[in-house]
């Protein structure tokens, strides 16, 4: 296990290394940050001088080496717009995104598992058909239409829930503004998290059902039934455990994707998280923040994927994470 | 040949499933309309001289201010919504299917290789996938867009927009396939039939493609249907950032997007009708995909 | 659908539930909040709006394009190059320091160090302090716009900004991208002080209890950026905020019809145009082709349909009220004439051209560009349009990446010559002249006239020179003029004088606002 972790950390470093190279490669495609910082009447010569001062005119390799040197000490550069260290900006916005993903993940897990199993066990029941029908319709509606629909019905028609922003958040612990500390703030997270889970949920229901149906056909489940074991126990322990493998793989990837790309949901609901920050940074060509964001997301991915692989190994001992040499 | 097809199990099980037949018909109609767009459309919405700004934001025919010439109304530029839906569906379908074909092709190859070979090859390919996944299609588009612009200049963009978008969306989302396929391969690899194939000395390529691949297609199909929808949406999102279809050749997605600002202000038809068509399109693809999955997974039919 | 519209308005009700609606709190929703507390960090509309809240200028523009005294009570020209300002006595900064002529001189020095302002103040000599309440502003050459520039001079508290901060940096440092004392601390003489700020999320201003003059009755301003247009509009329709700016054109009619909201629009001074690059596309070298394009452009139609009538179709750069504005120049839409001109020029079959435009810079910029492409199709010009966000646009613009490029221009000096200097004089990389003239139009006579006008202090003569420029540009179809976009605001009915506090510069003077 230890060797596995060490290797994964090494890999993570390489991934970050590569991402930082690519990040630097593309940062000029986002536009000139100086352009966004100065008024339009500022002369080309002045802008050039300012770019010199910021080191933006140095050869890209020099800039990159400078970046890596600082990154080793945990400094990912300074956001041009916020005038703060990029990591500080990202960490300030991260709780919003993580809470949103957390709420969506809860929704997905607590709904998809029972529904998926039920639909597999009783495929012919009307309820199962309803769930499957609803899930296929759900998966066919683009997130932005779902979000619009939610806002229209629950915020506009019924006035039940707020339609945008994080509302009156309060400190969960220093550095973490939370929506889970009061009902007033919690109401703000409901619609965005439903919207975010609207694509994942049907996908998981369908996946769990499909895997479950397959497992139920296997000999060992039939044998377990034949042996007269408690049917619920057979279902949960023998059958469900074996569906977890693909579910975890897909789930891990999707979780990573949710964290990184809540962009669309955050934009529609103006949720002040990392996705919203990313879009704004693109608009302002705040390239320092963009590169930091890329590296940060890359790290998140590696962490999530590592955790997934570890769980994968626990669930399925046939896959040895350490790899026998 | 036809006779043989008619007697096949494929045709039999298809005919017996009304949902599959229904969605197939809907999809067929949509595809026909899209392919024959110039025939069904009352104007060519991509031809500037055919549209008139003065017709802009005309509501649908049956509303008090509607005009007979535009039965579904017009958008903010005066394009006939009906005609634009037809032309836009054509482009969206092309991009969606093209991108999914590309991403599944890349993803399956990488996933199979990684899962089957294991070891260093596996961890290398999966780390590549990590890197790729952490760059969303926005960034891939910005990156390649910049290269393309440097190579061709902004002028030629309109001519290469469609293949460019297929490439960008296809290239940015293959890791989902790769990871899914790899996971299935890992599970399949330990099964007796693979061991058996190896023992009798079949070449790895043959084992991978002829024996393992067919058994990993279930999750691939589950993903594919979603991915077509995602590809269409990615295209819309890219259009918004100025990286998608040229604005005067709207696709379904960009038409919805462009109507968004007007939706709240009363011109609901610009978003609603293309939105309905998009949902219908994706839904019928999904339903067909569902049926196909059940069909390809004959184990389900044993009981 | 009517119902949907009304109820959509309530979408944001609960979002603002937290802000208690005390009677004299102005809840303000803007598209973006100020980027800094330091007025010299950026020359932009948003920063100037902020400056008018926390600082006071020497003089300020009124609705009739005249000047109102603020910290300067009167002023007079002493000679060609000098203007004397008499300052208000007994004014205190937020810090408690007395305001004197020294602060004016100090602020001018600092302006000359700011990247954004140094160009505008290039022509100024350091100010001369005559006594505590008298200061002379001097220019290197005779400069007709000296008083215009005094509107940008918001005296800062020189004592407050002197010394070192806790990081050992001088407190007067202008931190464009780095932290600085001035970025997070402010002391001006203005009607409000900054009480709370979370960048990009909210900003709270409190009334300055020691303000030097009568003011409105706003005790507190709760400013929040709401980027999304529809949400911003919904928030005022549901009375969750008292004032929004700007208003998107598609919602003008809806806000006009609402019982609880006053829509305020005003002809703006930002001109929008397309430049036709004569170096890239040889066809544009032919004045007949350029003229044909102007004739084929239905800019009154664009104003009517895309801007919903809230704009003024243009045939020149200078808006009404500017010295160079010539009322005889009228929009020239005439398709027949355009086709005839194309034929005369030898392009009866048309030609192809490329075009770029931003998609998030000007009001409905992308829509306008698309409409133009359709209009060009009618005279056989096939235009290949690419739109992009402004962050990427200006690089392409500078590189002259397409034959036709869109630009909007607001004159920072509120004067006609500024348009011509940036947009129409012969481009020269070394001197920086014609920096935004991507049409590469060049007429030495125009250059000569601008140079003359820039040092002409006789208003009548200057007017004639500037109008002559507009006539030449119009006759030669130097560019395709589109319109001056309207400014727009919306206020709740509880605001008594919202109409009086706005102006064509788009700096609402919230200090004067009275609320029921």
UniProtKB/TrEMBL annotation, chain A:
Keywords noted in UniProt: Cell membrane, Membrane, Transmembrane, Transmembrane helix, Transport
Family: Belongs to the binding-protein-dependent transport system permease family.
Signal peptide residues on this chain, from the entry's feature table: none
Lineage, uppermost ranks: Bacteria, Pseudomonadati, Thermodesulfobacteriota, Desulfovibrionia, Desulfovibrionales
Compartments, record wording: Cell membrane
UniProt topology in membrane: Multi-pass membrane protein
Stated name of the protein: ABC transporter permease
Source species, domain of life: Bacteria
GO annotations of cellular component type: plasma membrane
Any one Gene Ontology BP term: transmembrane transport
TM regions (residue ranges): 12-30, 100-121, 133-155, 185-205, 243-264, 290-315
Organism name: Halodesulfovibrio spirochaetisodalis
Record-annotated ABC transmembrane type-1 domain positions: 94-312
UniProtKB/TrEMBL annotation, chain B:
UniProt-recorded name of the protein: ABC transporter permease
Entry keyword Secreted: no
Subcellular location: Cell membrane
SUPFAM superfamilies in the cross-refs: MetI-like
Natural source organism: Halodesulfovibrio spirochaetisodalis
Record field: transmembrane: 21-41, 91-116, 128-148, 268-289
Residues in ABC transmembrane type-1 domain copies: 89-289
Pfam families: BPD_transp_1, OppC_N
Family stated for the protein in its record: Belongs to the binding-protein-dependent transport system permease family.
Any single biological process term in GO: transmembrane transport
Domain of life: Bacteria
Bilayer topology: Multi-pass membrane protein
Keywords: Cell membrane, Membrane, Transmembrane, Transmembrane helix, Transport
Keyword flag Cell inner membrane: no
Chief subcellular location: membrane
A GO cellular-component term linked to this record: plasma membrane
CDD domains: TM_PBP2 (cd06261)
Automatic annotation (TrEMBL), chain C:
UniProt-listed Pfam families: SBP_bac_5
Any single GO CC term annotated in Swiss-Prot or TrEMBL for this entry: ATP-binding cassette (ABC) transporter complex
Signal peptide: 1-23
Basic and acidic residues composition-biased segments: 165-175
GO molecular function: peptide transmembrane transporter activity
Annotated Solute-binding protein family domain residues: 68-428
GO terms under biological process: peptide transport
Compositional bias of kind Polar residues: 177-187
Keyword match Signal: yes
InterPro entries: Peptide/Ni-bd (IPR030678), SBP_5 (IPR039424), SBP_5_CS (IPR023765), SBP_5_dom (IPR000914)
Region ranges (Disordered): 165-189
Keywords on record: Signal, Transport
Family named by the database record: Belongs to the bacterial solute-binding protein 5 family.
Name of the protein in its database record: Cytochrome C
Biological source species: Halodesulfovibrio spirochaetisodalis
């Amino acid at each position: 296990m230890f060797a596995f972790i060490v290797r994964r950390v090494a890999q993570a470093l390489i991934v970050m290394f590569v991402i930082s190279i690519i990040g630097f490669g593309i940062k000029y495609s986002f536009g000139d940050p100086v352009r966004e910082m100065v008024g339009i009447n500022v002369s080309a010569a002045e802008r050039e001088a300012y770019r010199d001062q910021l080191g933006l005119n140095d050869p890209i390799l020099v800039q990159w080496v400078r970046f890596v040197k600082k990154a080793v000490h945990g400094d990912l550069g300074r956001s041009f717009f916020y005038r703060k260290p990029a990591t500080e900006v990202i960490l300030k916005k991260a709780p919003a995104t993580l809470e949103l993903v957390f709420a969506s993940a809860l929704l997905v897990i607590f709904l998809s598992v029972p529904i998926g199993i039920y639909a597999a066990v009783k495929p012919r029941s009307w309820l199962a058909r309803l769930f499957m029908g609803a899930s296929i319709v759900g998966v066919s509606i683009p997130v932005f239409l779902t979000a619009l629909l939610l806002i229209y019905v629950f915020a506009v028609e019924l006035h039940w829930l707020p339609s945008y922003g994080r509302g009156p958040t309060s400190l969960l612990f220093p550095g973490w503004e939370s929506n889970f500390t009061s009902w007033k703030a919690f109401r703000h997270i409901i619609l965005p998290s439903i919207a975010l889970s609207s694509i994942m949920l049907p996908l998981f229901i369908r996946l769990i059902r499909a895997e479950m149906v397959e497992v139920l056909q296997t000999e060992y489940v039939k044998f377990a039934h034949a042996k007269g074991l408690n049917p619920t126990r057979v279902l949960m322990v023998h059958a469900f455990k074996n569906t977890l493998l693909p579910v975890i793989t897909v789930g891990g990837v999707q979780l990573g994707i949710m964290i990184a790309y809540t962009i669309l949901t955050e934009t529609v609901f103006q949720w002040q998280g990392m996705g919203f920050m990313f879009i704004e940074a693109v608009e302002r060509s705040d390239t320092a923040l963009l590169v930091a964001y890329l590296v940060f997301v890359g790290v998140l991915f590696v962490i999530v994927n590592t955790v997934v692989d570890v769980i994968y190994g626990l669930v399925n001992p046939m896959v040895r994470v350490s790899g026998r040499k | 040949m036809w006779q043989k097809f008619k007697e096949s199990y494929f045709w039999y099980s298809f005919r017996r499933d009304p949902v599959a037949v229904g969605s197939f018909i809907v999809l067929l109609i949509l595809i026909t309309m899209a392919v024959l767009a110039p025939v069904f459309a009352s104007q060519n919405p991509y031809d500037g001289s055919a549209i008139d700004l003065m017709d802009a934001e005309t509501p649908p025919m049956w509303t008090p201010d509607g005009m007979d010439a535009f039965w579904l109304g017009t958008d903010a530029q005066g394009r006939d919504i009906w005609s634009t839906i037809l032309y836009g569906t054509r482009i969206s379908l092309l991009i969606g299917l093209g991108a999914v074909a590309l991403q599944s092709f890349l993803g399956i190859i990488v996933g199979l290789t990684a899962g089957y070979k294991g070891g260093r090859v596996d961890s290398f390919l999966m780390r590549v996938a990590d890197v790729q996944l952490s760059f969303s299609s926005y960034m891939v588009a910005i990156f390649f867009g910049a290269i393309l612009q440097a190579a061709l200049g902004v002028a030629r963009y309109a001519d290469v927009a469609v293949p460019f978008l297929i490439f960008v969306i296809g290239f940015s989302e293959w890791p989902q396939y790769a990871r899914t396929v790899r996971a299935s391969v890992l599970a399949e690899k330990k099964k007796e039939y693979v061991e058996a194939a190896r023992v009798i000395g079949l070449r790895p390529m043959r084992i991978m493609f002829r024996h393992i691949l067919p058994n990993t297609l279930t999750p691939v199909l589950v993903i594919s249907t979603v991915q077509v929808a995602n590809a269409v949406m990615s295209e819309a999102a890219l259009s918004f950032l100025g990286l998608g279809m040229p604005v005067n050749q709207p696709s379904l997605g960009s038409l919805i997007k462009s109507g968004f600002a007007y939706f709240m202000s009363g011109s609901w038809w610009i978003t609603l009708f293309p939105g309905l068509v998009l949902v219908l399109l994706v839904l019928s693809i999904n339903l067909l995909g569902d049926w196909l999955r059940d069909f390809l997974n004959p184990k389900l039919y044993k009981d | 659908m009517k119902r949907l519209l009304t109820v959509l308005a309530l979408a944001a009700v609960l979002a603002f539930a937290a802000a208690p609606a005390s009677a004299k709190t102005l809840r303000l929703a803007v598209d973006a909040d100020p980027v800094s507390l330091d007025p010299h960090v950026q020359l932009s509309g948003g920063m100037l709006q902020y400056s008018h809240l926390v600082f006071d200028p020497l003089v300020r523009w009124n609705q009739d394009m005249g000047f109102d005294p603020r910290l300067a009570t009167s002023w007079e020209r002493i000679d060609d190059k000098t203007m004397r300002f008499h300052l208000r006595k007994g004014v205190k900064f937020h810090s408690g320091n007395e305001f004197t002529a020294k602060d004016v001189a100090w602020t001018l020095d600092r302006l000359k160090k700011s990247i954004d302002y140094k160009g505008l103040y290039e022509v100024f000599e350091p100010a001369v302090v005559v006594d505590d309440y008298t200061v002379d502003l001097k220019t290197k050459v005779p400069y007709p716009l000296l008083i215009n520039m005094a509107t940008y001079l918001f005296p800062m508290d020189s004592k407050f900004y002197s010394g070192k901060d806790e990081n050992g940096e001088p407190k007067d440092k202008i931190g464009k991208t780095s932290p600085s004392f001035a970025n997070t601390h402010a002391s001006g003489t203005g009607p409000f002080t900054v009480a709370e700020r979370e960048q990009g999320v909210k900003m709270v201003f409190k009334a300055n209890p020691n303000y030097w003059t009568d003011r409105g009755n706003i005790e507190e301003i709760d400013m929040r950026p709401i980027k999304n247009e529809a949400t911003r509009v919904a928030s005022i329709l549901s009375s969750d905020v008292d004032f929004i700016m700007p208003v998107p054109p598609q919602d003008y009619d809806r806000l006009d019809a609402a019982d609880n909201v006053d829509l305020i629009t005003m002809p703006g001074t930002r001109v929008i145009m397309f430049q036709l690059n004569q170096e890239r596309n040889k066809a544009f070298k032919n004045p007949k082709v350029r003229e044909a394009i102007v004739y084929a452009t239905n800019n009154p139609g664009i104003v009517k349909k895309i801007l919903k009538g809230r704009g003024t179709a243009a045939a020149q750069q200078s808006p009404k009220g500017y010295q160079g504005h010539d009322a005889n120049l009228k929009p020239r839409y005439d398709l027949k004439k355009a086709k005839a001109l194309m034929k005369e020029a030898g392009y009866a079959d048309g030609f192809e051209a490329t075009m770029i435009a931003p998609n998030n810079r000007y009001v409905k910029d992308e829509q306008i560009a698309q409409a133009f492409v359709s209009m060009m199709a009618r005279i056989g010009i096939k235009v290949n349009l690419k739109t992009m966000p402004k962050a990427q646009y200006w690089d392409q613009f500078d590189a002259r990446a397409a034959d036709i490029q869109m630009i909007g221009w607001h004159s920072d000096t509120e004067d006609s010559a500024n348009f011509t200097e940036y947009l129409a004089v012969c481009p020269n990389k070394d001197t920086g002249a014609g920096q935004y003239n991507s049409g590469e139009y060049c007429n030495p006579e125009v250059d000569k006239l601008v140079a003359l006008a820039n040092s002409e202090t006789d208003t009548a003569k200057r007017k004639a020179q500037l109008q002559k420029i507009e006539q030449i540009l119009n006759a030669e179809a130097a560019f395709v003029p589109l319109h001056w976009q309207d400014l727009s605001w919306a206020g709740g009915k509880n605001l008594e004088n919202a109409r009086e506090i706005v102006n064509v510069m788009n700096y609402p003077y919230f200090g004067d606002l009275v609320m029921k």
